[in-house]
Write a structure and sequence with these properties.
CATH superfamily: Aldolase class I
Number of domains: 1
Largest sheet: 8 strands, parallel, barrel
Number of strands: 8
CATH class: Alpha Beta
Strand content: 15-25%
């Protein structure tokens, strides 16, 4: 199971970020839209120093991804990026988008469960149906949106590589415990 952590957009809190980086996540997506490019690049470099082995994505900033040597998560309305130019992550909000986005390195399928302000939820049944119909692809597929240790087993599917998570990592007191519980639920 692959777990991608996503930062909450509250700026670099080094103590908290260290806890999340040490929690057992497999990758990190820096989603700090409020930061100017220099401050965002400083975050990328800080993470690179603190956890050099951790795959890293930056949301919506191709310039920072290129200079920082990390992947780009291109949000919904982002222009197309040539395949192979930079490691690319994309959101997937509708099964009809699969065909056009399978050249990405990573797809975040969202929201799986209802999340305020994130549009209609796929639900476990909708997710499974879409994954069953998906053509073969080397793209990493991660479920996102309202996934907790209590409902993670509902989204397991042979085509799904794991989950992306934000709130469980940043809002709880023990991010390592959240990761451990999520992995245990996934194995069950």
């Amino acid at each position: 199971m692959y777990i991608l952590g996503i930062t909450p957009g509250e700026g670099l809190d080094r103590a908290r970020w260290k806890q999340v980086l040490a929690s057992g996540i497999d990758g990190l997506s820096i989603r700090e839209k409020q930061l100017e490019s220099k401050a965002l690049l400083d975050c990328v470099r800080w993470v690179r120093d603190a956890a050099p082995e951790l795959p890293l994505w930056v949301v919506g900033r191709l310039d920072v991804a290129l200079v920082g040597g990390c992947g780009l998560h291109a949000p919904e309305a982002y222009p197309d990026i040539s395949q192979g130019f930079v490691p690319l992550s994309r959101p997937l909000h509708d099964p009809a988008q699969f065909k056009d986005r399978l050249s990405a390195d990573q797809l975040l399928i969202a929201p799986i469960f209802p999340v305020a302000g994130k549009g209609p939820a796929w639900g476990p049944t909708g997710l499974r149906a879409a994954l069953d119909a998906l053509p073969d692809s080397p793209c990493r597929l991660l479920a996102l949106g309202g996934i907790t240790p209590f409902n993670a087993a509902q989204v397991k599917h042979p085509r799904l590589h794991g989950v992306a998570m934000m709130r469980s990592l940043w809002k709880g007191s023990e991010p390592a415990q959240a990761v451990e519980q999520l992995r245990a639920a996934w194995r069950s």
